[in-house]
Design brief:
Structural class: mainly alpha
Shape: extended
Number of strands: 2
Number of helices: 4
Strand order of the largest sheet: 1-2
Helix content: 40-55%
Order of helices and strands: HHHHEE
Largest sheet: 2 strands, antiparallel
Distance between the termini: 65 Å
Strand content: under 5%
Low-confidence stretches: 51-65, 157-161, 163-167
Length: 180
């Protein structure tokens, strides 16, 4: 009973944190857009741009944003996709059926001391839905790495490359438009 209360509260807080991280990302993006707009207006009006007030950076649209620097992924860290795959490989090696997004996030925090935020939900979902790199149990919500497909055993065929291009209907005439 008490564990359920703790789990429910943890899930609620993780959801809220993911929502707030998404909001922070949206605000950072808007602030960056405003910096770019300010720079463009200054350039078009012929005025010299002032050094960035918050960071002292004379280039407001430099590679690293003054707003996202604190929240960005550390350099040298694998991509989020690679982190997800690593977490799921670890789960498979430990004999688990798969991992929920919060468990992927927990793994990354423990291994890399990096909080991947809402990416723990969105990246695995994209890897499952769009690129079909992952499996998802729709009942439990667990993501897993698909089992490898074993190659077909063609030992009765000759080992030459000719068998790779053989068809099951060799004497068939080709019709216009590929009809049978």
């Amino acid at each position: 009973m008490e564990k359920d209360l703790i789990k429910n509260r943890r899930d609620t807080l993780e959801g809220e944190l993911a929502r707030l991280n998404a909001r922070i990302s949206n605000i950072n993006a808007e602030l960056n857009e405003l910096d770019v707009a300010e720079s463009v207006l200054a350039r078009l009006s012929g005025k010299k741009t002032q050094p960035n007030k918050l960071s002292g950076d004379p280039k407001p649209n430099s590679q690293k944003s003054k707003y996202t620097e604190r929240h960005s992924k550390p350099e040298g860290l694998p991509t989020i996709r690679e982190l997800v795959l690593e977490a799921l490989m670890d789960a498979r090696q430990r004999g688990l059926q798969g991992l929920a997004p919060r468990e992927i996030k927990k793994y990354v925090i423990e291994q890399y001391n990096y909080n991947m935020g809402a990416s723990a939900n969105t990246i695995p979902s994209r890897m499952w839905h769009l690129t079909k790199e992952l499996n998802k149990d729709l009942e439990t919500g667990l993501f897993s790495i698909p089992e490898k497909i074993e190659p077909v055993d063609n030992s009765q065929e000759s080992s030459s490359t000719g068998s790779l291009f053989s068809t099951f209907q060799r004497d068939r005439k080709a019709d216009q438009g590929g009809g049978a």
